[in-house]
Amino acid sequence: MRRFLKHRLPSPESLRQHRWLRMLGNTLLHPSLWHLNRHSAASAVAIGLFCGLIPGPLQMFGAAIACLIKRANLPLALLVTLYTNPLTIVPLYLLAFGLGAFVTGSDARFVAPPPFSWDSLGEAASNYWDWLLTLGKPLAVGLPLLAGLLALTGYVAVKAAWRMYLVREWHRRATRRKRD
Fold this sequence. Notes:
This protein has seven helices and no strands. By secondary structure, the chain is mostly helical.
């Protein structure tokens, strides 16, 4: 897994040369943000899964800040935030709404979103904002709860998968040594 990801992630040197990232200096070039091990990978997946439910374009910004604080693998966290996309965001928000309604004991029902019109983009955005506000407490409770559950599950899954991979490699080496 490490070899697979290492060849697909940008190198620190390519980022150092990037014209937009040069202004950040060495902040983004800290070695722990680019080092890939089971701890940084598990933290990055957890951060990406948690920040993936942040609405709008703030997902990657939130993930980047969390990686800087936690010193987790930055490219992996940014990649993982992409699990929310136009096909998955509605089911995830429905799940968050249901989870929030269950936890709060609310009998609120999910209301369908208003129709979208490209002709009046400002009015459509306003209608969507009003619609989100009607979802209220169940969604406000459900989103962080679902994000936390996804992050915890992702963290444990990566740690377990990495551990299973290491144990399998140890057994392969031991078998190879016995043959020699």
